[in-house]
Automatic annotation (TrEMBL):
One of its GO terms (molecular function) is signaling receptor activity. Its main location: membrane. Residues 1-30 form the signal peptide. This is Outer membrane receptor for ferric coprogen and ferric-rhodotorulic acid. It is found in: Cell outer membrane. Residues 287-683 form the TonB-dependent receptor-like beta-barrel domain.
Length: 713
């Protein structure tokens, strides 16, 4: 970047400045530091609300965080938070090479990653779609409730999931979960790291991370992060390349104010991606069974996507007890592709019956959001209480267009004989698209009241006004609604380590979907209740929770069919109830673990099971262990198990039986700077479908291996 060649002479004498100049001049990327229980990764972190030593998992090396503000806006321990909060720490991300957000969330205690295509993903939890995503607590809405591309985790220090409705801190209440991505932040002390990885199917990856003070006084600190990955795939013809860059600078304006400026970009290039997936049923109703490598993609198709994020953040200590935070964020999502979709129902004997559907697609989504919040403590009636206030204003503008290709409906050969060879058509058969603007304004207030030494009450409310105007593929995308969402939670400390809690919040989510007559559906309303038991053990290095939850939604949009090319929906009522267990952290100085188990039932208002494509029982576990006598060796494993899922269509039932996926890892530290690590995924070579969220699917990756050489300073 040109700015790298204009460093002032004073900065060129600083170690970080020299490292930044070297990084700009050569194609070297740094890696996420490897940690041991005895080592600190990046030295002292500047004291600020966003980089507290008590919850930074880079520094602690733990599989949990000691504090979180994702649920209420108040920085509380997980035991003091009256909702289930799971943490995927930087140590867990690094140990198991969870370089993709999809892989990271698939390791969480209760999130289902619905990989419907190679480059489009949905997420669900507790029976419902996850539509609330945040970066450092600031909402990042996705226009269609999904993620395009393979989002990398190199920029993040940890990922938190708050289960159940989170209407206080997210855009709207939703009883699934809110996912909060916590960015890595600049550090005071200089540190750098680099790694290079190779793996199955020609995977090559380099990444890097440099951080430290830019001036002698330490009042200006910076962090530069980059990664590049290029890989082929187990899927026929598919390959992917992604490049990630991120930079953050913190400036201490005075002793009580810090200004942060950050920018990140990720660019994805996918060749022969799947748009749609494999047909799951033959014409006789029998379920298909293809080779794991089977793909419907053509040899000319591609799908490029990018995301740019820029933010300016001001943190100021108003007094010893009060802090102010103001954030201005700009997100820019873009997609461009030439895609090939295969539709129809094949014959069980010949495999014939699939038809071609080519299309050119482009999308632009620009989001701007301003947030202001204040939090602090007050003394009243001889006790200390905590308060937080906030307001936000957001606007999202989406434009997309589809140019459909000539030859729609052309017969295709059997997928057993398909090699992707299909003439690239001219994309001028017809055109359609979307343009709509979504605006949302909100304000919230929450108080944590100390009623007695063992008893605290958290109460608050959020006022939300949402409006959407425009069209989406010929259908009005208009809606307008406002509501006040209350929140209440109570926590009772049974002992110094155990607490019991209960929480309640309303659900309010505006909808743009239309019914059979073309009328926009009313907003989703309902409630979310949770009670449970929480504990923190081993000097607060291990967190555990047991939760019973019940969620009710009314007017939830469910796809019901098409009127011509226009989809229409019906409003349904649904209830989800179950139990969730989450245990994560350090058991001994050698053993880290993370265990999550969810069991639930999802019924409609008549008591019939719905959303059967979601597992009713889900187990996630991971652990690592430092081997005694071989102090440099760490070994570990993870297990993902779910019970069977199904989807009933007009052509028959699609079923995925229960399955378990086991992964192994090992790392050896030669010294404090150099290490080598290896990860073996899907050890038993389990064959299973990635999702039944749609009535098409494809198979997950078979057994694969990666090896990394790591260095840190």
């Amino acid at each position: 970047m040109p700015v790298c060649h204009r460093l002032p002479a004073a900065l060129r004498r600083r170690p970080l400045a020299l490292a930044l100049a070297a990084l700009c001049a050569t194609p070297v990327y740094a890696a996420e530091p490897t940690t041991s229980s005895e080592e600190k990764v990046l030295g002292a972190v500047t004291v600020s609300e966003v980089a507290d030593a008590g919850d930074n998992t880079e520094r602690s090396g733990l599989y949990t965080a000691r504090k979180s503000s994702s649920a209420t806006g108040l920085k509380l321990s997980l035991r003091e938070t009256p909702q289930t909060v799971s943490v995927i720490s930087r140590s867990q991300l690094s140990d198991f090479r969870l370089d993709s957000v999809n892989d990271a969330l698939a390791a969480s205690s209760g999130i289902n990653v619905e990989r419907v295509e190679t480059d489009r993903t949905y997420y669900t939890a507790r029976g419902f779609d996850i539509t609330n995503f945040q970066a450092d607590g600031i909402g990042q809405p996705f226009a269609y409730g999904n993620v395009n591309g393979d989002i990398d985790t190199v920029l993040y220090e940890r990922i938190e999931a708050v289960y159940g409705a989170n209407g206080l801190m997210s855009g709207t209440g939703n009883p699934s979960a809110t996912v909060n991505f916590l960015r890595k932040r600049p550090t005071s002390q200089f540190a750098a790291a680099a790694s290079a990885s190779i793996g199955s199917w020609g995977k090559q990856r380099v990444e890097g991370d440099i951080s430290g003070s830019l001036v002698e006084s330490g009042r200006i600190r910076g962090r530069l992060i980059a990664a590049h990955e290029d890989t082929d795939s187990y899927l026929d013809r598919y390959s992917r390349e992604k490049t990630v860059f991120g930079a953050i600078v913190d400036v201490d304006l005075d002793d009580v104010s810090t200004l942060s400026i950050g920018h990140s970009e990720q660019r994805n290039k996918a060749r022969s991606p799947m748009w749609g997936a494999l047909p799951m049923l033959y014409s006789n109703g029998q379920q298909t069974n293809y080779d794991v490598s089977t793909s419907t993609a053509s040899d000319w198709s591609y799908w490029n996507s990018s995301v740019r994020n820029t933010f300016v953040e001001l943190n100021r200590e108003l007094s010893a007890d009060w802090r102010l935070r103001a954030v201005l964020t700009r997100n820019d999502y873009r997609n461009d592709g030439a895609l090939f979709y295969a539709y129809g129902t094949p014959d069980a004997t010949t495999g014939l019956g699939l038809l071609a559907y080519p299309s050119r697609y482009a999308m632009s989504n620009r989001q701007t959001q301003a947030d202001v919040s204040a939090s602090g403590r007050v003394k009243l009636f001889g006790r200390t209480h905590e308060l937080a206030f906030g307001a936000s204003s957001a606007e999202s503008v989406l434009d997309d267009i589809s140019h459909y290709g000539q030859g729609i409906g052309t017969a295709l050969p059997s997928l057993d004989d398909w090699n992707g060879s299909y003439p690239m058509p001219s994309f001028d058969a017809s055109v359609n698209g979307s343009h709509f603007v979504y605006k949302q304004k909100s304000a919230y207030a929450v108080a944590r009241l100390s009623l007695a030494d063992p008893l605290t009450l958290i109460a608050g409310a959020k006022l939300t006004r949402a409006q959407s105007n425009g069209t989406s593929y010929g259908v009005a995308h208009d809606s307008q609604a406002d509501d006040v969402t209350p929140y209440a939670g109570i926590v009772y400390a049974l002992t110094s380590q155990l607490s019991t809690y209960a929480s309640y919040t309303d659900i309010f989510t505006p909808q743009y979907q239309t019914d059979l007559a073309g009328n926009t559906l009313a907003p989703v309303t309902g409630s979310n209740r949770e009670i449970g038991l929480k504990g923190e053990f081993f000097a607060r290095k291990l967190n555990a929770s047991l939760a019973l939850f019940r969620s009710e939604q009314r007017n939830l949009a469910e796809a019901a069919g098409y009127v011509g090319a226009r989809p229409y929906h019906r409003a349904v009522d649904a209830q989800s109830e179950g139990v969730q267990i989450d245990i994560a952290g350090q058991v001994t100085p050698r053993l880290q673990l993370s265990i999550g188990y969810t069991q639930l039932a999802i019924d409609d208002d008549a008591g019939n099971a719905v959303r059967t494509y979601m597992p009713r029982r889900l187990l996630r576990s991971a652990l690592t262990y430092r081997v005694p006598g071989i102090e440099g060796l760490k070994v570990g494993g993870s297990l993902h198990w779910q019970d069977d899922i199904s989807r009933t269509t007009s052509g028959g039932e699609i079923r995925q039986k229960a399955y378990a996926v086991t992964n192994l890892m090992a790392r050896y530290d030669f010294d404090r700077q150099w290490s080598v690590s290896a990860n073996l995924n899907n050890v038993t070579n389990e064959k299973y479908l990635t999702s039944l969220y749609w009535d098409q699917s494809y198979y997950a990756a078979p057994r694969n291996l990666s090896v990394s050489l790591n260095w840190k300073y």
